[in-house]
Design brief:
The protein is α+β, with helices and mostly antiparallel strands. It has two domains: about 1-40, YefM-like fold (3-Layer(aba) Sandwich), CATH 3.40.1620; about 45-185, no CATH class. About 50% of the residues lie in helices and about 25% in strands. The strands form two sheets. Strands 4, 5, 6 and 7 form a four-stranded antiparallel β-sheet that branches. It has a three-stranded mixed β-sheet with strand order 1-2-3, with helices on one face.
């Protein structure tokens, strides 16, 4: 549970605050003259957040590399931008490729293999040697709705089959979901 504490009060109660943060996973927002200045969080939560930021940065770097490779691949095919957009639009309307069907496949996989609180977002067609629908995976919590993206899932654009996640990828999604769930719900249980 997040609590607001003034800097003077913090100086007076520092030992109690640190104990609550360590033992009860309390979070304190430190204010000076009514303005938030800092947060005091449990070390494990802080380390989880740092790992999440590093993983998120790695995902964005990977997406940049994939986007560059996809652009190069499209250029090598000699397709104009209009040709690519026409192919994407055609794929969206072909049976078996509609985004609703792709999301249904993804939802079934997420429910069975990852966690019931995870929901697929809007699929994006990613070109490459093997085109896939890339779907962001969102954590949904009762009373909070869509909370945060915790990863992505690919669906083969040709077959409509979900490309299975590795055990490490599944664990990573579950861990990121758990971090958010612990912060937003009282006595949250693991997402896995």
């Amino acid at each position: 549970m997040e609590q607001v504490i003034g800097s003077t009060e913090l100086r007076q109660q520092l030992t109690d605050v640190l104990q609550a943060v360590r033992e009860q996973r309390a979070t304190y927002i430190v204010e000076t003259f009514g303005r938030s200045q800092a947060a005091i969080v449990n070390l494990e939560d802080y380390n989880d957040f740092r790992r999440y930021r590093q993983e998120r940065q790695a995902v964005f770097e990977r997406l940049d590399r994939v986007a560059a490779a996809n652009a190069e691949h499209v250029r090598s095919l000699g397709l104009s931008e209009a040709d690519v957009l026409a192919l994407i639009e055609q794929a969206r309307h072909e049976p078996g490729y509609a985004s609703d069907q792709v999301r249904r496949h993804a939802q079934g996989y997420l429910t069975e293999h990852v966690a019931m609180a995870l929901r697929p977002g809007e699929p994006v067609l990613v070109w490459g040697d093997k085109p896939v629908w890339r779907i962001p995976v969102w954590l949904h919590l009762r009373g909070h709705g869509q909370v945060a993206a915790v990863g992505s899932l690919d669906v083969d654009a040709a077959t409509g089959e979900v490309i299975p996640l590795s055990p490490d990828q599944i664990r990573g999604m579950q861990d990121r979901a758990d971090v958010f769930a612990r912060r937003l719900t009282p006595q949250a249980t693991a997402a896995g």
